[in-house]
Design a protein that fits this description.
Length: about 270
């Protein structure tokens, strides 16, 4: 049997806990609303920050600003579709959506504030915990690493994108539009002969596509990790360089620039 004094004791503990939390929230204004630094901590020791945006129709949108996926990516995980699916499944438990690379929740009425805010924090903490369940990126398929870079930049993209050429249809691994008109194909081979044949094959694909619409910016991302650095010789690369921008993975910052529209890739 629970005594009245026990109930009062428990209530006092809860009240003290809530009062402690109250003093540990820090807010700062921005153009669209505010940023709220919470007392809740990610596995790397950083405090979780929630961005609040007030819409004209009275709704309030809460988000993590992409920081959760950025944390996973910088910790060595590929932001692949598998990881996105896991994150989406976790987030849905708390009523949270994923918009490209952001965890997002909507407050449509005043009475929902606490529930929605707490749900977003719970989702952030649990998605961040995926760090314990994934392989380091060095063991991932090359195309997953490239895909993770696209997701990490917050770009909407189409995987396995089919596009018309003069002689028929071609499937390119990633299409990124957003006004960029990018076709991105990861290329990975274990020896120079295979690399040369792959480059020749993709010269045909890209050339056939561009002969229909030369606005496409075609990018070949070469797997030069570890021993594969010696595979992509000048001879092996020559065919694809005639029709596409070639970016070795060791210089993937150029891919990031292209995704941000900072690098002219038109050929």
């Amino acid at each position: 049997m629970v005594r009245a004094t026990d109930t009062e004791f428990c209530r006092s503990l809860v009240a003290e806990y809530l009062e402690t939390l109250r003093g540990d929230f820090v807010t700062s204004d921005n153009e669209s609303g505010c940023a709220i630094l919470t007392p809740f901590i990610r596995p790397d020791g950083d405090s979780i920050e929630v961005l609040a945006e007030r819409r004209d129709d009275g709704r309030v949108i809460l988000s993590d600003g992409g920081e959760t996926f950025a944390y996973l990516y910088l910790s060595g995980l590929s932001l692949s579709r598998k990881l996105q699916d896991d994150a989406r499944r976790i987030s849905e438990r708390y009523g949270v959506d994923i918009d490209i690379n952001e965890l997002v929740a909507e407050i449509s009425s005043k009475g929902q504030v606490g529930e929605v805010f707490h749900g977003l924090v719970q989702a952030i903490l649990n998605v961040s915990a995926l760090i314990e369940k994934r392989r380091p990126y060095i063991n991932l398929k090359f195309e997953e690493e490239v895909e993770g870079t696209i997701i990490g930049q917050g770009k909407r993209y189409d995987p396995d994108y089919t596009i018309r050429g003069v002689t028929g249809n071609h499937t390119v691994k990633f299409h990124v539009d957003s006004g960029l008109h990018l076709l991105i194909q990861p290329l990975s081979q274990s020896n120079e002969l295979q690399a040369t044949h792959t480059a020749q094959r993709w010269y045909y694909h890209f050339d056939d596509i561009k002969n229909v619409d030369d606005r496409w910016s075609c990018i070949a991302v070469l797997d030069d990790r570890g021993e594969r650095a010696s595979v992509w010789t000048d001879h092996a690369r020559a065919p694809i360089e005639a029709v596409a921008t070639v970016i070795p993975w060791s210089r993937r910052e150029r891919l990031v620039d292209a995704l941000e529209g900072l690098d002219s890739l038109q050929l």
